[in-house]
Specification:
With 236 residues, the protein is α/β, with parallel strands linked by helices. The protein has a five-stranded parallel β-sheet, with helices on both faces. Strands 6-7-8-9 form a four-stranded antiparallel β-sheet, with helices on one face. It has a three-stranded antiparallel β-sheet with strand order 10-12-11. It starts with 14 loop residues before the first strand and ends with a strand.
Length: 236
């Protein structure tokens, strides 16, 4: 159940355009995003979305792939060629080629249906964070992942103020991910220079790190696998 927001939205609340032909999904997303501090406008198709974008400015577009009439990929490709608006695609398509087509069109991220609302929220926030100035990103000294907080300078990880022991390698990995929040880091960049830096060793190290920062390591929310590429870290 999605809680209704009791207080008014902030004047600088990010404005999201939700484009999906499924009215129930639009309503669900509208309530969920509004309850989490977003301003939401809903469109049932690409034509309506275009009409809204002629008169309103949006911080992000959440766009379904499969829609009657003009599909989401075509709309995304056109939007990316005419205006610098971040786009997150909602897709039921599991085929990697469809995702690659979207990425080639300039889509910033993908979320598969059915989606976990909390994961969707993390992805949207990270897309918006990537659009901030480098100075605001580089000045961050702590990153939060649920109940865990990692101090980049001190190299300390805590859960609910209780210290969690890290190996030097785990500390290095978290610092590397902290520099690339919301960006997929290839396995070869995560490999160390010594004999333990094989891709298999990286997978083992990532699994150990997940056990320290994830509530459910077998179903990670923050440190996720990007199939065929590497890993990506999302933060709150």
């Amino acid at each position: 159940m999605i809680a209704e927001r009791s207080e008014p939205l902030a004047d600088n609340a990010p404005h999201v355009l939700v484009v999906d032909d499924d009215q129930k999904i639009r309503a669900l997303l509208g309530r969920f995003l509004t309850s989490n501090g977003f301003r939401v406008t809903e469109a049932a198709d690409a034509a309506t979305a275009r009409a809204f974008m002629r008169g309103l400015a949006f911080d992000l577009v959440l766009l379904d792939v499969m829609m009657p009439g003009e599909c989401g990929l075509t709309l995304a490709r056109d939007l990316k060629s005419t205006r610098p608006v971040p786009i997150c695609m909602l897709t039921a398509l599991a085929d990697a080629e469809d995702r690659i087509t979207g990425l080639e069109a300039g889509v910033d991220d993908y979320v598969s249906k059915p989606f976990e609302p909390r994961e969707l929220l993390l992805r949207l926030r990270n897309i918006l964070r990537r659009g901030q100035t480098p100075a605001s990103t580089s000045s961050r000294d702590e990153i939060r992942m649920g109940g865990c907080v990692f101090s980049i300078t001190r190299g300390e990880l805590k859960r609910d103020d209780e210290a969690i022991k890290l190996t030097e390698r785990e500390r290095d990995l978290l610092r590397l991910f902290a520099q690339r929040i919301g960006v997929a880091v290839p396995r070869h960049e995560l490999s160390s220079d010594d004999s333990t830096g094989s891709e298999r060793a990286i997978d083992v190290q990532i699994n150990r790190l997940r056990r320290k920062i994830e509530t459910d390591p077998s179903n990670p929310v923050y440190l996720q696998t990007v199939r065929g590429k590497g890993y990506i870290l999302y933060i709150d």
